Amino acid sequence: MPVSDASVIDLVAHDPITDSVTLVMVEERDWGQRGELLPDLQAKLSTYLGYALDGGLIHDYPMVEGKPITFQLSSASPPGPRERHFIDLVKREHLDPETILWREEQIPAA
């Protein structure tokens, strides 16, 4: 599922070693330099925040209640400058206060 499908949580993973949960979003398109995918990223992150903070995650996976949460962006290329600015803002204003971590991973091109 690409970031463009804002209604879907792409992947939920529990790491038994760290006893943490990771919500993964996947983007295979190139981010570009002009913020072309920024609206998609904004909508996707809004969905992920709501899912993590409004009870959807615990409803679907009660065993992860109280566990540390990480949002992971897995993409074919690094986010563009506008997406990067938005990610930094979201981290500072929404993730950090909730102790949600952020991680990025580059995936091989298809």
The coarse overall form would be globular
Number of helical segments with 4 or more residues: 3
Beta-strand level of the residues, as a percent range? 15-25%
**How many angstroms does the end-to-end distance come to?**
14 Å
Q: Evaluate the radius of gyration.
A: 14 Å
Structural class by secondary-structure content: alpha/beta
Stretches with pLDDT under 50, minimum 5 residues: none
- Number of individual domains: 1
Strand order in space, largest sheet: 1-2-3-4
Mean pLDDT across all amino acids: 93
| Helical content class | 25-40%
**Main sheet makeup:** 4 strands, mixed
What is the succession of H and E elements?
Answer: EEHHEHE
User: Strand tally, please?
Assistant: 4
Structure explained in plain terms:
- It is a single chain.
- The protein is built from three helices and four strands.
- It is α/β, with parallel strands linked by helices and 110 residues long.
- A four-stranded mixed sheet has the order 1-2-3-4, with helices on one face.
- The model has no long low-confidence stretch (mean pLDDT 93).
